[in-house]
């Protein structure tokens, strides 16, 4: 990659701001990079990189650490890392909990609080819960600069303004949750679909790094959502609603696998069904996966096999259409994969077009329960990363 150059309509200040964005972006995505690596990645000269890093240090967006130890001849290059005091607040409302996190640049999740609820919260309740948790976190946030709040919502979120058009499991329709959050907290907020944000987080920081064509499916308490990365870019669609894999209606290799007449993928492949057969009333992702892996119950194994077969149909259809290099599974779908990854791959391969399946991998999300927090934080960091010089 080469550094920005002055083109028609661009002045020196515009080029400087673009270079600042590039440098901060590299530091953010790597969690730490040497000045010499920044020089190589951007194609800028060393003195320009030194000046840009110096400006980012003054803005309290990065920190320069002791030079990296190398065997190369010459002076070692300082390592540039994200400033620990610059953070975003991430929020994920679900049917059983509202999770709030403090996330730093570099995808560093400092705190994650799961506020459990016994009913699907309204947008107003969500705003009140977030405000209350932030009050509890006042000591953790003292001295930090909060760049904003990002909401990962399990539903269709309009990209233009963050309006939640439809979140069926929460019971939200045309919910203007963003202004409610802003009024309750005093911080700027942005909203996006939870699975789209989780998929983007995996692309930037997780198992999907360096893979330009991938599909991400997230399984949560509110069903199944997804994201598509094509040629390194998130596929949003006309209004930002792309990736609703859970609302597709799968076919069935064995009709006996059907549980809901005319049901969607998320009706058939369901966290609630897994919890029920395990005799559990709730729990986080780690608890559910541990219970599935340790269970010797024939009923549990039968349900795992049924859900895996139905999921394989949905995945094979998506692979036929999109021809990804990588399929990433998050949430309880990652747990389904963990229980028998070879069987899932075989069942997908048996139904996909051979040429489309060739070279495709299925892997669990690498960021675990942090993926939605990191993805939501990207919304809050977006303006900062695009123009670091705008920070006051």
UniProtKB/TrEMBL annotation:
Pfam families documented for this protein: MarR_2 (PF12802), ROK (PF00480)
Domain HTH marR-type: 22-64
Xref: InterPro entries: ATPase_NBD, HTH_MarR-typ, ROK, WH-like_DNA-bd_sf, WH_DNA-bd_sf
PANTHER family cross-referenced by the UniProt entry: BIFUNCTIONAL UDP-N-ACETYLGLUCOSAMINE 2-EPIMERASE_N-ACETYLMANNOSAMINE KINASE, ROK (REPRESSOR, ORF, KINASE) FAMILY
Family of the protein in this entry: Belongs to the ROK (NagC/XylR) family.
Name the UniProt record assigns to this protein: ROK family protein
